[in-house]
Amino acid sequence: MAYIGNQQTQGFSSIPAKQDLTGATGTSLTLTHAVASAEGIDLFINNVRQESGEAYSIGGDGVTVTLTGSVVATDDIYVVYNSLALQTTVPPDASVSTAKIIDGSVTAAKLATSLDMQNITLKGGTTDAISIDSSGYVTFPVNTVSFLATALANNTSNGNLIFLNLQHNLGNCYSTSTGEFTAPIKGIYHFAANALRNTGDANLSFKVDNALTYLTGNSSQDQAAQYLTATSFAHASISINLQLNAGQKVTAFVGSAATVYSNYNYFTGHLIGPVS
User: How far apart are CA 90 and CA 92, in angstroms?
Assistant: First the structure.
């Protein structure tokens, strides 16, 4: 069936509760809701129903009740509406969008203290950052920072160790061309490296922006390092947590007196967490 004018919305009707007029005096009462005629209300004075059109009438404004008698402040007076209905719109399912919600109208006070939701995804801009599935597993779809690189091109001495075989490189922060890890954000990072000695002896250590790392001071004995001895097939393994600014570079380094095998070694690291 077609409509002329605006299409009706879904809704339901409810009759308002009675209106208490106790305390009024004289021959005039005022309604809070307009009605079309005297039959639109039932008027009770001291619990006695009054005859519409005889005991009272409704003015042209729909809210003024004129009594044929007079009431005093102690009279118990109330009206019950017969023909008045208030309509409350019921939005159809999936019809409410963010454009229909006033900014700032949903506050923390309107939310439950515990939200029972499944398959939650938090976004960083338009990119999925953290997901929690219905089993409670937390995943980081993108921007996870972690790498593991193994194997040198040749036996290496006196310089940065450039590992060529990437086992993984999440965040694409390690370069197989330079052997450098570049911090994408300011944060705390964990690094570990292992090397197998071929000849000579020297320190296996880390460099930050091509400068050796130190734990507390500025001496060769205080480096975050392990000594490669002249013992045959000696391994050196080191690890450290470093606070880096975005753009700082970390490499594994071996001193001039030692040579390490191209195989049986690795360089790995990951972001522990950001800092402000």
Answer: 6
10 Å CB burial of residue 46 (0-12, 13-18, 19+) is exposed
Contact 155, 180 (CB under 8 A): no
Do the Cβ atoms of 58 and 43 come closer than 8 Å? no
Nearest to 15 by CA among 39, 40, 38, 37: 40
Torsion angle of alpha carbons 239, 244, 246, 248, nearest 10°?
Answer: -70
CATH of the domain at 192: 2.60.120.40
Domain boundary residue among 69, 86, 103? Answer: 86
Domain of residue 220 covers 146-274
82, 150: one domain? no
Label residue 219 by pLDDT band (50, 70, 90). Answer: low
**pTM attached to this predicted model:** 0.54
CB 39 within 8 A of CB 51: no
Residue 40 has a pLDDT of 87
Q: CA-CA distance, 220 to 214, in Å (whole number)?
A: 8
Interior/surface letters 154-180, b for 16+ CB within 10 angstroms, e for the rest = eebbeeebbbeeeeebbbebbbeeebb
Pair of tokens at residue 114: 């515990």
Identify any residues that bridge with 199 across adjacent strands, giving them in sequence order.
Answer: 259
Residues making up the chain, counted from first to last: 276
